[in-house]
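So, can you check what follows?
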Amino acid sequence: MASNKAVISLTTGLEDTERVTIAFLVAVGAAESGRPTLMFLTKEAVRLAVEGVAIGTACAGCPPISELLSRYQAAGGGFLVCPICVNSKGLQASPLIDGAAIGGTIPMWEWIGNDGATTFSY
C-alpha cells in the first residue's frame, strides 16, 4: 500500500514571503487532512524554525505566516532543519519552535521510510 506521507522542502525564508506562504498552505493542507507531514527546511528557510521569526503576511488576503505555522503545529506537522545550514548561519544556539529538530537528509529518508512520500519543493 502506498504511503500517505507528505514532505515539503522549503529553501526560502522571509525574503520571499509568498513562497513561504504557499509552502505552508500545502503543508497545512496535508497535515490537516491527516497525512503525516514533514517540512524540510534548508538555506534561508532554517531561520523560520527559530522562535519568533516566522511572522509577516505575504499579500492582501493572505493568511499571516504565524497563523499557518500555528495551524501546522496543531495538526501535528513536524520540521527537520538542515544542520549544515544552521551552522553556516550561526544559529546553533537559537531556540527552535515546537516540532522542529535539527537533522539532515538521512533523518529525512528514515522518516519517509520504505513506502515513500508525496513531495513538494519551494
